[in-house]
Amino acid sequence: MRIKIVSLGQRLPEWVRQGTSEYLDRLPRDWPVDLIELKPEPRTHGKSIAQVLALEASRVLAASEGTVRIVLDEHGQSWTTRQLAEHMAQWRLAARDVALIIGSADGLDASVKKEAERVWSLSPLTLPHGMVRVVLAEQIYRAASLLNNHPYHRE
Hints:
The chain is 41% helix and 21% strand. The protein is α/β, with parallel strands linked by helices. It has a single domain, classed as SPOUT methyltransferase, trefoil knot domain (Alpha/beta knot), CATH 3.40.1280.10. A five-stranded parallel beta sheet has the order 2-1-4-3-5, sandwiched between helices. The longest helix is centred in the last third of the chain and has 19 residues, at 129-147. It is globular, with a radius of gyration of 15 Å.
């Protein structure tokens, strides 16, 4: 199993890169995670938000082709860390690659959500894009630690 974080957004602040790397670099080699940064569609030239999201959707779907797609959205189902770990264990057992998809500032097109196996909410709050990346990386690390009986996660 390989995990892809498919993220619409480039050139984020250094603290986002540092925070994300802090947790992804801690993962054991048998938990590979790839960060795929996609360039958001420019919000100019008279395009509507719907047009922008549709253009971004094609890139997101191409980048996540052949994976179990999990969309991150504040309106999704919330999971505990243990539930995330259980999902990761199931994906690993089934040898399924997974794409955890983070939308742009305007979210994701409905077509991406329709193609997703699940819609997951890290929080009912609207979080900044960079914060989602860092929290997601930490939760992946925490869930892998839980599955590997590492003492990082405490209940």
